[in-house]
Amino acid sequence: MTDIHEYVFEDRTPGVEERGSTAGYLSYTVGLGLAILATIGSFVVAQTNLLWPPGIPVGLIVLALAQIGIHLVFFLHLGSSADSTNNILALAFGVLIVFLIITGSVWIIANLNNNMMPMPH
Amino acid sequence: MTIATTLERTEVPTELARGRGGGGPAPKRVVVAYGFWIFILSDMIMFSALFAAYAVLHGNTAGGPSGADLFNMRSVFIETMCLLLSSYTCGLGVLSAERGQPALFLVFAVLTFTLGAAFLFIEINEFAGMIAKGAGPSRSGFLSSFFTLVGMHGLHVASGLIALIYLVAQVLVQGLRAAVLRRLLCWSLFWHALDIVWVGVFTLVYLMGVYH
Predict the structure, then answer these.
(1) pLDDT at residue B155 greater than cutoff 60
(2) Number of Cβ within a 10 Å radius of residue A13
(3) CATH architecture label of B29-58+71-210
(4) Are residues A20 and B98, on separate chains, in Cβ contact within 8 Å?
(5) Complex prediction ipTM
(6) pLDDT over 70 (residue B48)
(7) Do B211 and A1 count as a contact with CB atoms less than 8 A apart?
(8) Residue B45's closest CA among A67, A101, A109?
(9) Contact A90 B48 (CB under 8 A)
(10) With 90 as the cut, is the pLDDT of residue B106 above it?
(11) pTM summary value
(12) Where in chain B are the domains?
């Protein structure tokens, strides 16, 4: 019952700063290397027939999502630490809204385009 | 009573417990970065509307030039590398500032500024070339949405460069005190986020525009 008091809580008030982040030069350098690979990959995929041509858009989207993930983890340091929890929840909500806006617009306007009367030329 | 005791015992205090009772409130650095992160996400939602407009309008060339006729992929690749490298040097700059190395910070800040300015220079050249060819924003729905989306990203980069000058002046005048470090951290979040938007731009606008 009393052993809870044996723990030493490291109290931090909002005004008190802690120095130093967990990120190191290595994390940024690894991230840069991976991001350069993804960038070169997507430029190569778009301008050659390395991929089956109808699959190129899908390949480009996969490479872009991979690169965004690399940026989030290695540059913005979104990870599994307790400090990131709130940021990741907010990001998830933002991704939902972005997804709704983009797919919703494209979907609705494609439908409208299909139902348009042929334009007189 | 027993339930309360069990709950207290299962809550293991670590240095990482923050803002949830044990361990005390989150440090200001974390709170400020979270607030700025919310701003960045709202900015992303604004960009998503512009991406949606581009996705809807990109085929409406009104008999004018399409992306494949206009885009110079070599300069887009150089732009991409400039922005990516400036994101890298920006991260290293903030890291050296947090480690209390102002001279190293200044070197990285100058590199970041130069690379960002090079990106902007190439982009403005590209825009000027397109407008000179008669492919300005008023030519077609495709070009209106192209200039809005890419131009908005360029405006963000330009405002980021101005903010960087302001922050470097603060570091020179005030030194690396905690408030300045927090501003630098927020600025680096903004700069990295711009690079993420650029990944979307070069994939959806440039690469998808020329691939076939």
Answers:
(1) yes
(2) 9
(3) Up-down Bundle (1.20)
(4) yes
(5) 0.84
(6) yes
(7) no
(8) A101
(9) no
(10) yes
(11) 0.85
(12) 29-58+71-210
